[in-house]
Target: Integral membrane protein
Amino acid sequence: MSTTQPASQAAGPWRKAPRLVRTGFVLVVLGAVGLLLSGILMWTAEPPTDPGPEQRRVIDAVVTALRWTGGIEILAAVVLSVASPGLLLGDPRRRTVTAVAAGVAALTALGIWALGIGGPVQPLLAFILAGAVLAVYRPAVRFHFRPGRGTW
Model:
């Protein structure tokens, strides 16, 4: 009788997670990377150098909005990247934290896009994050997230 583990379990705890949870984890990581890049680009946006006095107020308002929303996206990306490993471990609290952070980030991204401040990548980020949350909240993976599992 062999005492070795199957190849699917020998690689680590993430192999024990259902395929939908692993897919959701990958989508969360992709969304977090996209949010981080988008937030950094928004935070470092340079206003035009020589606008008129009327345009200066509008540009200042847009730059302020970009910095605030960029900060929110960077914060959401950090929270998603810290909480997402708990999805693979089956921690229900981290799943909730991930869902809340993804919801805030998706609403922020859609709001930026709807106001015409953000670019066309914002709805794509919201779509990726929505798909990630739906993947880890499917009834088929409910058995994976039980109280007492995970690291928190």
Notes: Residues 16-45+54-144 form one domain.
